[in-house]
Amino acid sequence: MRKILALAWLNVVQLLRNPAEVVGVVVLPLVLTMLFGSAFAGAEATELGVLFVDEDGSVYAEQVGDLVDSEASLKIEAVSRQEAEMKIAEGDAAVAVLVPKGFGKDLAGTGATIEIMRNPNSQSAYAVLSVVQGIAMRMSGNAGVAEIVSTAMPLSADFSEVYAEADAQWEPDPPVRTEGQTVVASEVRGDSVLAEGATHSSIGFTVWFILFITFGSAGGILEEREQGTLRRLMAAPVSRGTILSGKVAGTVLAATVQALVLVVVGSFAFGVPWGRDPLGVALILGSYILAGTGLAVMVSALVRTRDQMGGLSPLVATGLAMLGGCMWPLEVVAPAMQLIAKLTPTGWAVMGLTDVVARNQGITSAIVPTAVLLGFAAVTMGIGVRFLKFE
Question: What is the pLDDT of residue 350?
Fold first, then answer.
């Protein structure tokens, strides 16, 4: 065991000794994860500015502004009608919500109107219009109840009091609400909840760049063969199995460290819920690292030189990443591509991690991906060991 660990550590040192390898398998994954994670996280937190014009000054007009501003994606700015018209005309704003004079009085009488002013080139105004329509329905319902009750009991019920009582029924949840569900034509595992934003970015880049480091580390075998180091090791009192075990252990160690770094960055920098089921994540990532190592050893056994390995490994890693859903959710691609993803280790790793991390389905959802990946590792490792040449 000591000899295997010594050879494994030597393999890691050889990998880190090459500045190009360090940039490609350590620095680049961190930079891309931070870049794409920040982009997605920033996109999720973006607020749309909405101009708000209150010409009425009533508590009902104030309620309109409060309800618009309570939407997480909207941020109101109080302006005059003239300022709103000028900003929208000059393209400095996309949409304005106007509460005209007499709104409060009309709400208790013939009916009130909320006006929307928008830039014709802006598509975001439709989202604001939908929000305002919901507010109008809420206030209409409140006003209708208040009108009926205050008319039926004019001596004991005041319109404003009944309105306030009716409006209180909307908090914390409205009497009737809608729930949206994404339905996709999918043959992949799991339900219809997609891994989006920083979560999919973190999962995808972790899976993708584990392949890069396994290929880079396994490429050291070819380098040592070209330099004659492997041939000299055979003359030492070390068996062929020990040498191979040390090289494989070094590759697994390097990939494990990289996976841990990417998981920690995703968890703390972007809030990706990697910690929902640590055992499930460990099973999938561990089996995937073995599968990636087996694939890298197999390729290193089938090519002749380090240069061939260096040219082929980015193509294989990137191709498997694209087919396996590292760059986009598998649920959005054609059924034929979803089937192809099931033939790749990256596809099973992404599907399993999505079930555990994004969908919170627990460790049971990690069993099938882990078994498939271990099978893939056994096959590729067996082929690699069978054809690997020491000279």
Answer: 93
d(C-alpha 113, C-alpha 128), whole Å = 16
Closest CA to 77 of 51, 54, 97: 51
Q: Which residues contact 175 (CB under 8 A, 6 or more apart)?
A: 169
pLDDT over 70 at 181, yes or no: no
Cα torsion through 201, 207, 209, 213, rounded to 10 = 160
* pLDDT recorded at residue 187: 54
Does pLDDT of 43 surpass 60?
Answer: no
**At residue 321, does pLDDT exceed 80?**
yes
Residues 6+ apart with CB under 8 A from 240: 234, 390
Q: How many domains does the chain have?
A: 2
- One domain, residues 20 and 104: no
pLDDT per residue as tens digits for the range 183-225: 555 555 655 566 666 788 889 889 998 988 888 777 766 766 6
Q: Give me the domain span that covers residue 208.
A: 2-42+186-387
Q: What pLDDT score was predicted for residue 108? A: 79
Residue 302 lies in a domain: yes
Q: Could you tell me the CATH number of the domain that includes residue 125?
A: 3.40.1710.10
CA distance 383 to 364: 30
Q: Kindly state whether residues 67 and 32 are assigned to the same domain.
A: no
